[in-house]
Amino acid sequence: MAPELVSIVVLMVMFVIATVLPVNLGALGFVAAAGVGVLVGGLSLDDSLAGFPTDLFLILVGLMFLFGIAQQNGTIDRLVEWSMRLVRGHLVAAPWIFFTLATVFSAIGALFAVAIVAPLAMPFARRYRIDLLLMGMMVVHGSLAGAFSPISVYGVVVNGLVAGTALPSSPLTLFLVPLAFNVLVAAVVFVLLGGRDLVGVRSHHVEEEDEEPPADSDVSVPGGVGVRERTRAGTRVTYPQVLTLAAIVVLAVGTVGFGLDVGVLAMSLAVVLGILSPAGNAEALKGISWSTVLLVCGVITYVGVLQEVGTTELVGQGIVALGVPLVVALLLLYLGGVLSAFASSAGIIGVAIPLALPFLLQGSVSAIGMVAALAVATTIVDVSPFSTNGALVLASTPEDVDRDAFYRRMLVYAGSVVVAGPLLAWALLILPGWL
Q: Where does the Dicarboxylate carrier MatC N-terminal domain lie (predicted)?
């Protein structure tokens, strides 16, 4: 069997194993890169592993380390607290507040924005009788809305893959298109899942400096039902939180405004925070998701082998041979979307763009539009309870909720998104040809 076909079979086996067994897809990627490269492709071991993304490794670790510190010292909780105060008296805004929080955290580099926001948003929704599916999906779509900023992990991965090719690129377009797409989807979700019922529902916030907050009690207010809430006042921003907030601002300004390396800057800021405020630094380092780092780096390393043995060129030629560019584009979007619903979006998009490269080089469809559509199609399905984001929402559901029933609701919603998401991305981004 030709090396190209062997590498494709191995790739399919990798996805099957990672789906049915608790085996990291990235670990499989490293093993496959060495095995296929040396035994089938005739490459040396060094050449087989040469595709390891050193820059991306530093970005992933640096961002996770920095935001792990922010989580440990309470900076993230402080930001959420300030945002929650904005909805006092106007619960209709609550889902959008959490949507915006997830967007901002994701856009400035927090890989697991859902893990930060969902544990706060879901109990909040339960407390104020907001539909849990509405709140959970708003958080996920918020995270996806900011997922492709130039300093986010997804944005760096995709821009890095495109930058190494002859394709035109537009980091700003890649950021804004998924942002607008997910805002649109979130608006539809908000309407369909009862967001309009929150109009006129208000909560009243009463601060008491010296008393423990008593149990909530419902009260009638003009125009709807309100919840009177008492909390402790006088909590001040701490020194470590001030430093961390400043570090986040420096990260955003330094990378976007001055083009500084995301990974180096994030790691440097994390180290500075560790020196100036050591508390929580060790815990933040332990909290780095090494499984995600392994996943992304392993998959991209194997993609390097696919390129070396000619697999991407072979697949691209086969796709182009279909002869109908719009149909080919739609099939690629569905392929990425369906696979991503059961596997890692970061891993799938790292494979999808190199596989689509020969097709994109033909110029039959807009390369910028197709890359943006692939970004949308492979991430919009992260609402699935089988994906990381969907699983985090399910795990954040309060204990007094019937999780089996909620799981079934998530499955129905995820199935609808898998069917409609890639088609909508194709219809809005590829078919008109406006990008």
A: 1-147
